[in-house]
Amino acid sequence: MKLIIQIPCYNEEETLPETINSIPKEIEGVDKVEILIINDGSTDNTTYAAKKLNADYIVEFPKNLGLARAFDVGLKNAVKYGADIIVNLDADNQYCAEDIPKLIQPILENRADITIGARPIDKIRHFSLMKKILQKLGSFVMKKISGADIADAPSGFRAFTRSAAMKINIFDNYTYTMESIIQAKRKGLVIASVPIRVNEDDLRPSRLVKNNLSYICRSAKTMIRFFIIYHPFRFFASLACIFLLLGVGIGFRYLYFFYLGDGAGHIQSLILCGLLITISFQTALLAIISDLLAINRKLIEDVQIKVQVLQNGR
Fold first, then answer.
1. How many Å apart are CA 46 and CA 128, to the nearest integer?
2. Is the pLDDT of residue 202 over 90?
């Protein structure tokens, strides 16, 4: 049983030693613990620090591609290097690495395919009240969109089985946390929340979240995009129904005035009615086409998984 801990890094020369040194060297139920560093185009000596700390694998990007891309490449490389379980750990030492055994326990017991560390949001001192509210709101919205009951959806401290990692494909360039949950739920993977601790000493500011307004805007945009990608039929069918109801409503308005003998004065309503109903039918067709594309994407992903199995031997 091989556990690979992947750590996406961007200019983490200073924080990386503390993060790696806090990782347990031996874990019950695991035969081998290895470390994979994904250097996301760092401009400092992150690679040198990783080599000095005897990281087992180092993947380097020629330029900064973002956290989501580093996470996705990390999963694929961890599978290639023979991982049975993959743990994603942030390089800023926010999460308590001593809780890795607790995080992977449901996987070792075959109770989950993916586990997500649930931080004690209310007790984290460096989180402002607004950030705590936004974190909880994000988890609530994700629960509604994905159907997964996750206590801390934005948490990056998570573990994957080998098969679960092969089924995850990240398309977003901003964050992987929400998209991976939606994908996992749609593919029938079991997700479990595991209470974990956090480190609060000497944490650097988040590079992903510059301010609350930026976080709200980018998160809202990401969630809407994911809803369209993973629920295309529901999205476009809902739009079609809205346009149809508006068109029918305006049509009845015209008929009302026509019955009163004033139809000529409301011919614009008749034109708008026809336009809205036409848009409704076009949007309904788009819903059908997008649903067919979604089915095609699923088939391609199934082929991709089979190719990975053939390439990696299992």
1. 30
2. no
In DSSP terms, 6 is beta-bridged to 36, 88
Residue 210 has what pLDDT? Answer: 62
DSSP secondary structure, 101-121, as one string: HHHHHHHHTTS-SEEEEE--G
* pLDDT band, very low/low/confident/very high, at 244 (cuts 50, 70, 90): very high
Q: Can you give the pTM of this predicted structure?
A: 0.79
pLDDT tens for 79-91 read 999 999 999 999 8
Q: Provide the 3-class DSSP secondary structure of residue 8.
A: strand
Decide which of 257 and 201 is more confident: 257
Give the model's pLDDT for residue 313: 64
Strand order across the 85-88 sheet: 57-60, 32-39, 2-9, 85-88, 158-161, 114-118, 191-195
Token pair 């460096």 is found at 126
Q: What is the CA radius of gyration of the chain?
A: 24
pLDDT (tens digit per residue) in 100-114 = 999 999 999 999 999
Question: Is the C-alpha dihedral spanning 247, 250, 254, 259 positive or negative?
Answer: positive
Question: CA 314, 102, 152, 61: dihedral to nearest 10 degrees?
Answer: -50
- Tokens representing residue 25 in the block: 């060297």
User: How is residue 6 written in tokens?
Assistant: 């992947």
Using CA atoms of 180, 185, 186, 189 in order, give the dihedral in degrees to the nearest 10: 100
Q: For the beta carbon of residue 183, count every other beta carbon within 10 angstroms.
A: 22
Burial 8-42 (b: 16+ CB within 10 A, else e): bbbbbbebbeebbeebeeebeebeebbbbbbbbbb
**pLDDT given for residue 207 in this prediction:** 60
Kindly state the tokens that stand for 67.
Answer: 């956290």
**The two three-digit tokens of residue 116, written as one number:** 């997500």
CA distance 256 to 48: 78
Which DSSP symbol is given to 263?
G
Question: Around Cβ 244, how many Cβ atoms within 10 Å?
Answer: 17
- Written as six digits, the tokens of 123 are 């007790």
What is the model's pLDDT at position 209? Answer: 60
